[in-house]
Amino acid sequence: MKKVLLWLLVLGMYSGVCQAALDVSLEIQKNPNVAAAKQYFDAGNVRNCYEALELAYKKDDTIPPSSFLIALFFLNGQKGPETRAWLERTASQSPKYPGPYLILGNFSLQEQKFAGAYLFFEKTISVAKTSKKMDEARKNSFLQQAHEGLLLIAKNRQDWKLAHRNLTFLLSLKPKDENLIRQMAVVQFRLGERKEAYQRMKQTSGDKDAFIITMSRLYQEEGDMKNAEKWMRFALKENPQSEKVSFTAATWFFQSGQIEEAEKYLGKAKQQGLDSWEGELLEGMISWYRKRYTNAIKLLEKVIYRVPSHATANNVLALSLVEQKDTKKQERALQLAQLNARLYPNDTTIISTLGWVYYKLDKETEAEQALQRATSMGNVNAYTAYYLAHVMMKKERLTEVQKLLRLALDTKGGFAFRTEAQKWLNRLSANPDKG
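Above: the chain's sequence. Below: its structure in token form.
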């Protein structure tokens, strides 16, 4: 999931920067000489277009190089190879103009070539800083976009010092930009500046509850569940009448495996007015966790009626249906699991569910294939390990079963089969030849 999210960020970044470049080209086309050259380009006569742009440049050398404008014209027409060729030509003929480096850097981001992108953005910054022909606004535009690219690379590498450096520059341009302020708070947290991070968050217009909850989530992401819980309980203490805080706490306690607390605060949120499919989803997941499968099905069916393609709702519904004795319900469980797997082929949890459904339906070959696929994705979770342990048990590979059970039990957070896994491991440890 992390890679998918990162790829979307890259595409968003690329689109934004290219749009900025296209805006520049549109602005420049107001120049009558450039507009005349563009007419040649639209007619397919690139040579005459270039010559006309060269004449325009001689009359006004504040406009970008002719080859760069042609690259932008091609970019506007989504002609990738031609755009690259003219950008390379610009870099060769006009090495002191930052435009080609910026766009080539974003092409590298699109291709996930982060080392190359880093070099292009650094080149953009060094060239833009020393440019004597660009006005301050255009220079800052290039600098801003290059630093945004470097910030994205820093986050991908988890290089928080690099992220801090680029955010510092961006905040110098937009000191009141709340999105940048929040990003800086997160970076300061990652750098160990906990108090400073909280103070930074308080500079934004969000409510205090949101700041406290964000601190809790940041600690949770670092695996510091003690401090994560401390901040969550602080949020509950600060605003005990908030439906939002109660529901957020219920969700957090569910994720951390504290089911009684999750039920307590979900109930409180409902008393405070919670009436949403999100609440029904959490209640359905708690019911599944408690192995109250009939109630889970009832709740999750409501969610899917309102949000048909919700991945988690369909996933947990499949897990609940497969526990029923009704063959039609079991068949529907398989259909849901298969559909989810097609829609989210890189989601470990969803592929693991498909494997478990196969196993419960005595399709052991398909079960093993799905679960091995899930383990190959990395970050094996407790459920993947527990489900695969059952498949290995069928094959009487007891050593592997024990390893998988230990892996499942060592995983932090909520795990619905923790008691069963522990009892099973105890039996194997007492009598290794019998599961």
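The CA atoms of residues 252 and 262 lie 8 Å apart.
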